[in-house]
Amino acid sequence: AKTDGKRTWRLYRDELHQEMIRRLEMRSALNEAVPGEQMRLRYQPIVDLPTGEVVGLEALVRWQHPARGLLGPNEFIELSEENGSVVAIGGWVLREALRTFVNWHSSPAGASLRYMSVNVSARQFRTPGFVDQVREVLAETGARPEWLLLEITESLVLHDADQVWADLRELRGMGIRIAIDDFGTGYSSLSYLSQMPVDVLKIDKSFIDDILHSTQQMALVETIVSLARTLELAVVAEGIELDGHRQALVGMGCPYGQGYLFSKPVTADEIHQLLAGTTTP
Ligand code: C2E
Ligand code: CA
Ligand code: CA
Ligand code: CA
């Protein structure tokens, strides 16, 4: 038994060791990802729930890792926040997403698209010069500020309030809209929410998952939707997978949604086809 314990420990130690090496490798590889042109974008439609019309798109980043294949953000965004590479990655995402949007928007099929939604990490937002960078990318791509929706987290708005709020006001002053992503998972109080310089609430998928089975969950989502209406904020429900979800949300007056029911995140080419009407989402 004693030697067994030793062996188990050794296995455990080796696994830890390998995990550490993996993270170290990922960190240094992440610094090469933007210059090495390894970042990719997928786009997920955001639809007008009553009509099903595609009104916007959310850009979601992927990393084409030279050895590990296509990685999702959950496998690298946290590490990139830690080592700071998220600033370069986020800059690339913003430029690429707007460049692509301008292309679509100028094609007949894409003329009805209203906006591109781009995720901004806390570290990226707090990096001095972020607002100037956004202004530059708009000028460079020819995108109008109204075409851009920046998705930030609740915690960013809650912490570090002075500088962050000033920057949010400046961005909104330019005509850019701000969304709170994963709304409901943080700790914002109601009174705070009414003062936040934001335009859109995105209700986290975890709230949508259970609305068909739990009247409490249903009531909670209804409350968020009516709260948003009172505060004159737009609402997007995330993670809509079932038609029952969609119907329930339409029933409570939730205007917008996204989820696998409509489309998974897909490539720019697939969006182009989707807009041209050659495929259904
Ligand atoms: P998020 O912003 O909440 O994005 C929604 C995530 O839910 C996406 O995962 C999307 O693929 C997934 N999703 C959408 N609809 C459904 C559905 O109906 N069912 C299920 N099961 N999932 C659905 P993804 O692309 O893996 O992104 C994960 C997270 O990574 C994002 O969560 C966001 O926080 C972050 N992220 C993605 N792109 C970027 C980026 O460019 N910059 C930063 N800083 N973070 C990003
Ligand atoms: Ca998001
Ligand atoms: Ca979200
Ligand atoms: Ca999320």
Please describe the topology of this protein.
Elements: H1 2-33, E1 39-48, E2 54-65, E3 69-71, H2 77-83, H3 86-105, E4 115-119, H4 122-126, H5 130-141, E5 148-153, H6 154-158, H7 161-173, E6 177-183, H8 190-195, E7 200-203, H9 205-209, H10 215-230, E8 234-237, H11 243-251, E9 256-257, H12 268-276
Parallel strand pairs: 2-4, 4-5, 5-6, 6-7, 7-8, 8-9
Antiparallel strand pairs: 1-2, 1-9, 2-3
Helix pairs in contact: 3-5
The structure holds ligand C2E and calcium ion (CA) (3 copies).
Key descriptive features of the protein:
single chain, 281 residues, alpha/beta, eight-stranded mixed barrel, 12 helices, 9 strands, globular, binds ligand C2E, binds calcium ion, Bifunctional diguanylate cyclase/phosphodiesterase
What is the structure about, briefly put?
Helix content is 49%, strand content 19%. It contains 12 helices and 9 strands. The longest helix is centred in the first third of the chain and has 32 residues, at 2-33.
